Amino acid sequence: MTPESPPNHPVYWSWLQEALGPGSPLPGWVGREFPGGAAGFYRAGPRAWGSLPGLRPPQRRALAALSLRRARDRLVAAAGLGFLPLTPDNPRYPELLRHIYAPPAVLFVRGSWPDFSAGPAIAVVGARRAKDSSRAAAQHIAGQLGEQGVVLVSGTARGVDASVLLE
Q1: CA–CA separation, 15 and 61 (whole Å)
Q2: pTM listed for this prediction
Q3: Are the C-beta atoms of residues 55 and 49 closer than 8 Å to each other?
Q4: 83 by DSSP, 3-state: which?
Q5: Residue 140 and residue 82: Cα distance in Å, rounded?
Q6: Cβ contact 43:36 at 8 Å
């Protein structure tokens, strides 16, 4: 166990997203509805998690198995690549994204901090096991869009998503 982080620290959101998986609606629900948000949920521990009707046993096991240290290491690695975390409790989190069914628990921002309301933004998604030609095509398209001032948004998952932002 690592020392406690402040309640609004991105490590709790990172822990939720990694344990529950991308696309899970549960991190957003926890952030909005659980007393204390993501940090309160973490601190409540497995006994409290078991009392939630929407949390299935495999999800509870995943939460218990993932350490806060591992989530923190993920944030440190992202920072080493020039990414800063953006979580739903941050006022800069895109307002429109807050209202979708399963908003991402963590967005990683690289480069200048975008004003998502100022212009177009494009989500970059693709195959996890992408072919080299697919990654190259995505990089080319993303490069052209970026040169035109379009904000590129990606979860940096393996494959196309990550190749666009990490190359």
Answers
A1: 13
A2: 0.73
A3: yes
A4: strand
A5: 21
A6: yes
- Residue 3: which residues within 8 A CB-CB, separation 6 or more? none
Q: Which amino acid is at 122?
A: I
- Residue recorded with tokens 């006994």: 47
Tell me how many degrees the CA angle 160-161-162 measures, rounded to the nearest 5.
95
Containing H/E element for 36? none
Q: Residue 56: what are its φ and ψ, rounded to 5°?
A: -80, 160
Q: Is the dihedral of CA 133, 135, 137, 143 positive or negative?
A: negative
N-to-C CA span, the chain = 34
Cβ-based burial of 141 (10 A; exposed 0-12, middle 13-18, buried ≥19): middle
Residues 105-127 pLDDT 10s: 888 887 777 776 777 777 777 66
3-state DSSP call for residue 138?
Answer: helix
**Could you read off the pLDDT of 67-86 as tens digits, one per residue?**
999 999 989 998 998 888 88
Q: Where are the beta strands (DSSP E) in 13-156?
A: 83-86, 107-110, 121-123, 151-153
Residues contacting residue 25 through CB under 8 Å, at least 6 positions apart: 101, 102
Pair of tokens at residue 60: 């509870």
- Residue 140 tokens, joined: 């080319």
Alpha-carbon torsion (57, 47, 25, 62), positive or negative: negative
